[in-house]
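Hi P.,

Sorry for the delay on this. The queue was packed all week, but I finally got your sequence through. Input first:
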Amino acid sequence: RNFIRAVDVFTGRILWESNFPKVGLKYDTDHHQAGVNSFGSVIAAAKDALYVVNGNRCYLVNPVKGTTMKTFELAPGRTGSQPPAWGFIGIWKDLLIAGGVPVADDSASRRVSIMDRTTGRILWSRDAANAFLHNGIVAGDGKLFLLDAVPFSDDDGRRRTAADRRAGSTLNCLDISSGETVWSLTGTNIFGSRLALSEQDRVLILSARPGDQMRNEIQSRLAAYNADDGTLLWNTSTDLYHSPPIIIGKTVIVQPWARNLLTGEQLNRINPLTGKPAPWTFNRNHGCGTVAGSP
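Then the structure:
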């Protein structure tokens, strides 16, 4: 709750510990909430630096010693005189992706800024029409993809329905260096709240955030777009899925099934008992952990 700690991955030996009061406050609860699956993380790591968000500051931390080397702040908004709180932190190459002015439930930010991650200089900023959902912020291939949508519960505390949220959603693709719009899609066809990107094949996956804390999302729909121009590649509605999309090569996996990344075709495997083709599936019992994958 009040510190971050580095440990040896093989032995668990504590390497260093640094105090950051209340840095983990929003995760320190026994309330049944979505946690990082909704808020995102307060830490982003690069080979040469660690970035820790706490309140209205971002701390550049030496990953070897745990000491703070620099402190970054976001620019005040149009009506405020104080730097706003940070809501999202991400890294793409030498750039820092900063979400500021978070909504009440911390699932989205009202503004995104791109910063030089060494100096903290703000290169450009963009305000959302609604809010930039934290799980809908992804970068790659020189582009920044932003899902601008009505958040799950707004600052008035009212929970939004799926219809409310789809009506105002926009999927934006920006040049990450300049902030200029490359392409943009809007309308009820933009659903869900999570993006995943295959840089290799230039495919952007749009999906929901599965979980019992996000019951008002469409969790039976998955869509793929050409990341270069926004062309819809495929769009499918199927049985409910229970994990975020995992892209491995030319396969996208969402529990319990897998599809071809480029065509959306459901994949099969050989059943070891019958020797015949059968749908590629896997299942697990209910749990709070998120499925992850690696090549």
